[in-house]
Amino acid sequence: FLFIAGTIHYSAFLYVVLIFIKNNNKQKLVKGIIYLAFFLSILTIINNNKIPFLSQIMTDTEIISDKISNWFNNSARFGFLIKWLEQTIVFFTIVLTKRITEKNIKNFKKNNEKIMIYCDAIYWINFCMFILFPFYIVTASFWRLMRSIVFLNYIAYANCSDSFYNKSKEKIMYNIAIILILIFLFFFEIIYPYNGVILKNIFEYNLFF
User: Fold this and answer.
1) Are 153 and 122 in contact (CB under 8 A)?
2) What is the distance between the alpha carbons of residues 42 and 86, in angstroms, rounded to a whole number?
3) pLDDT grade, residue 54 (50/70/90)?
4) Long-range contact list for 104-108, CB < 8 A, 24+ apart?
5) How far is CA 59 from CA 36, 62, 66, 134, 143, in A?
6) Ranges of each domain in the chain
7) How much is the average pLDDT of 47-69?
8) What is the pLDDT of residues 72-119, one digit of tens each?
9) Is the pTM above the cut of 0.90?
10) Could you write out the three-class secondary structure of 40-89?
11) pLDDT at residue 68 is higher than 70
């Protein structure tokens, strides 16, 4: 299914690594992704914010479309720091969500095992996305790959919220924290880069009013 999805959008191939995740090699994967992301980030910064050889390889082999290939020919300044911050915050919300879901898993009346499997999968998907760090240095356009898992994260948040007892203090605090973080991300994704133009278009050009 991953390879079929890959024919529709190249970002699907990022999830191939999940096939190889097993309990006995998770620690190796963690170290591998951290070291690789760190090494490529340093190398990219040294190389004038361009990933060495990668753009040329993509162009010569015609692996990807010209549109995506052009991303590798760009050179960003310090905007990548915002994307690093955003992704780190998102990851910590998933870590918190995973821990709470594990703690409250018995509160689910059914599908306990499926919910936990899904939560664990979302955790690893988000963790694997750290490999995008060096690509953000080249251009923020690679953030689109991170955005592709936003709704998957929302489902994990919703499951975690359901794991609390109704109207409990912990549930209210968790939901407020998630909402505040989403508002923070919304600001840096929609309002800050476009000076409110997108919001203005939504309110002025719609089918409802």
Assistant:
1) yes
2) 19
3) low
4) 104/160, 104/163, 104/164, 105/163, 107/163, 107/164, 107/165, 108/162, 108/163
5) 23, 5, 8, 19, 21
6) 2-204
7) 57
8) 555 555 677 888 889 999 999 999 999 999 998 888 877 888 889 899
9) no
10) HHHHHHHCCCCCCCHHHHHHHHCCCCHHHHHHCCCCCCCCHHHHHHHHHH
11) no
- pLDDT of the residue at 7: 43
> What average pLDDT score do residues 162-172 get?
87
Structure-block tokens of residue 89: 């915050």
Query: Which residues neighbour 189 within 8 Å (Cβ) at sequence distance 6 or greater?
Result: 86
Own/partner long-range contacts of 9-18 (Cβ < 8 Å, ≥24 apart): 9/148, 10/64, 10/68, 11/144, 11/145, 11/148, 14/128, 14/129, 14/131, 14/145, 15/125, 15/128, 17/128, 18/121, 18/124, 18/125, 18/128
Residue the block writes with tokens 């620690």: 27
- What number of residues does the chain have? 209
- What are 5's two structure tokens? 């999805």
Looking at the predicted structure, is the pLDDT value of residue 190 above 70? yes
Cβ(71)–Cβ(138) below 8 Å: yes
Torsion, CA 61, CA 75, CA 131, CA 5, rounded to 10: -50
**Per-residue confidence band for 33, with pLDDT thresholds at 50, 70 and 90:** confident
- Helix, strand, coil shares of the chain, percent, nearest 5, are 80, 0, 20
